[in-house]
Write a structure and sequence with these properties.
Chain lengths: ~400, ~210
């Protein structure tokens, strides 16, 4: 079996970009698979209080180093075909993929259900939960459905009650649904809370600007790899809003197959916050002939690209391509490219948005240390990139 | 070279609170069937159908917007250049009716003065759960100069009529000259036949969100 061709997901700052060395790395990657499984065995044993029952490589390492190594192995595994494959493994793996050591995140450790209070979005959450869990899982009994919906409502309301600075968006419940289908209620809450404070943070501000700014990275990325397609898209005057639901919900709103969404969540949990943008881009590139053979006109292109076809070859083509793209044009580089493009256009809305974001930047960066690419897509980062003052961001990504 | 089997393109938007059935109405109109578990819309979705009005083939280009307030920043840019606006509420939920003034203000402010605004009271099949009377909504429509129908995306009642009546009004406005095809953002594009790729209508402003 081959586990080659895919760059590692965990960003290695000193990673050699030289593609000629890929062959040499193949051997190492082939070793990752059994090694990753060993580390997972380790994690399971730790959970059961049997941390002694470890495999050879881990016993030489400190507990911190062991966890770090486990995380790296899991990240690599998430990029390989099928990701973590089973939900049993996901329940072990996903909690390791969130950085619980990030000091600026106020995690809630107590009885989260007791903290639920009425908040401005309570009704909206209820309305959305009431029409959730429609397409999957199959054959859900009415009793189980009612219970799952109740859990879903509790978990969402708990996050919003404990963190009143977070604003709910429709689609958030799609994400939460998936967490609850894979994890138990408590774990689901922990994951949702963590991601709401990190990778989804920019979607949960007072406005959706964080998300729409993220979408503005798609065309500059296409420009780097497919000029003909890029020129066509620009000529059509289409806007990348057609990808909003993919990016905002990590595809959970646009894909109907639970197994596919779970597999995509493996990838996104193990990657930097911009991975959904790379995957969206990989899908557009995959559909290039379809796009180019259609009318070069806003609504035609929008109508085509806003619908994600069923049964796309995620594992065979799209995820490897997204990973390749993210290695070729790395997130910090992409932000810089997009920043320059926008600056060149002097789009008044963008300028206004960035100006509006500036006051937030100092307070955020002085009180909250930056970790593992958090807020990588926030407007304040983009603004910094546009001012070519982002060397420190590069270090953090 | 492109050729068209229609003479005009009319741009529509569908607006209204979340859960009133905007996407279901669109689905019923374009696919002629009811989607019972219609998912919520994120951002803006898009559908088309070619209809015939007064012997003219017209392509309706319909932008279906998200109902949640949070998405309004995104959806508002799609109002520009709409020839028709379908404003939807749910006859079984009074709050969705109470919010119509806000939707109407948006529609008036963000479209051109000649945009045809059509009010739809959806879910008319749920008579036993009715929360807004026909008379009350009709008065609101008359007071504000809107055409009004109660419809049901589920049974299909009045769905065709709502979309087609709107098109008839727009077509009438073209014929009597009150809708100027050369005006910016008229929401109507005329196609010559057999058509070279030349638009008789004005090109929309860049980033207007309108491909007319």
């Amino acid at each position: 079996m081959q586990w080659t061709q895919w760059p590692t997901l965990c960003e290695d700052k000193d990673k050699d970009k030289d593609k000629d060395k890929d062959k040499d790395k193949d051997k190492d990657r082939n070793k990752d698979r059994p090694q990753a499984l060993n580390w997972i065995t380790l994690a399971m044993d730790e959970q059961h209080g049997r941390a002694r029952a470890v495999t050879e490589p881990s016993s030489e390492l400190s507990p911190e180093a062991r966890l770090m190594a486990l995380r790296e192995a899991l990240c690599r595994m998430a990029g390989q075909p099928g990701g973590f494959q089973t939900n049993a493994l996901r329940r072990r793996a996903w909690p390791h993929l969130v950085d619980n050591t990030a000091t600026f995140i106020r995690h809630f450790d107590g009885d989260f259900e007791a903290r639920v209070i009425e908040h401005p979005e309570t009704l909206q959450v209820k309305l959305d939960v009431d029409r959730s869990l429609i397409h999957y899982p199959p054959n859900l009994s009415p009793v189980k459905l009612a219970k799952l919906r109740q859990h879903l409502e509790t978990v969402i309301n708990a996050v919003l009650s404990i963190h009143p600075e977070l604003h709910y968006f429709q689609g958030y419940h799609d994400i939460a649904t998936l967490f609850l289908l894979v994890m138990n209620k408590r774990q689901g809450f922990v994951l949702l809370e963590h991601l709401s404070l990190t990778k989804f943070r920019d979607f949960m501000g007072p406005s959706l600007e964080g998300a729409t700014t993220m979408l503005r990275l798609i065309f500059p990325l296409i420009k780097q790899v497919d000029l003909e397609l890029y020129a066509f898209l620009i000529r059509s005057e289409v806007e990348p809003v057609f990808s909003l639901s993919c990016v905002l919900t990590w595809f959970s709103h646009v894909v109907d197959e639970q197994a596919v969404i779970e597999r995509l969540f493996d990838l996104f949990l193990a990657s930097h916050a911009l991975m959904p943008v790379y995957l969206v881009t990989a899908i557009i590139l995959f559909r290039r002939d379809e796009v180019l053979s259609g009318d070069c006109e806003f609504s035609a292109v929008y109508g085509l690209l806003s619908k994600v076809p069923p049964s796309l070859p995620y594992d065979l083509v799209l995820i490897p391509h997204a990973l390749e793209l993210s290695a070729r044009v790395q997130p910090n580089e992409l932000i810089e490219l997009a920043g320059q493009a926008m600056f060149a256009q002097r789009a008044p809305t963008t300028a206004a948005l960035i100006a509006a974001q500036f006051p937030h930047k100092p307070s955020r960066s002085t009180t909250q240390p930056w970790r593992v690419g958090l807020y990588a897509v926030s407007l304040s980062v983009l603004a910094a990139a546009m001012l070519a003052a982002n060397s420190w961001i590069r270090q953090q990504l | 070279m492109a050729s068209y089997n229609y003479s005009y393109i009319f741009k529509y938007i569908i607006i209204g609170d979340m859960g009133v059935g905007k996407s279901c109405l669109l689905h019923q109109f374009t696919e002629k069937k009811f989607l019972p578990d219609c998912p919520h819309t994120i951002g803006v979705e898009f559908g088309t159908r070619i209809i015939e009005v007064n012997g003219q083939k017209i392509k309706l280009q319909i932008w279906d917007t998200a109902g949640q307030e949070r998405f309004r920043a995104v959806t508002r840019s799609y109002y520009r250049g709409a020839a028709g606006a379908l404003m939807v509420y749910d006859v079984t939920r009074r709050s969705t009716y109470n919010h119509l003034s806000s939707w109407l203000t948006d529609a008036r402010n963000l479209t051109n003065p000649n945009t045809t605004i059509f009010l739809i009271g959806n879910k008319s099949d749920l008579e036993s759960q009715r929360d807004v009377t026909y008379e009350e909504a009709k008065k609101f429509a008359d007071d504000n100069g809107l055409t009004f129908l109660e419809a049901s995306a589920k049974t299909g009642a009045n769905v065709e009529e709502s979309f087609i009546e709107t098109a008839k009004t727009i077509f009438q406005n073209i014929q009597n000259g009150s809708l100027d095809l050369n005006a910016a953002e008229s929401g109507v594009q005329q196609k010559t036949q057999p058509a070279p790729a030349v638009d008789l209508g004005d090109k929309p402003a860049a980033n207007s969100g309108c491909g007319c």
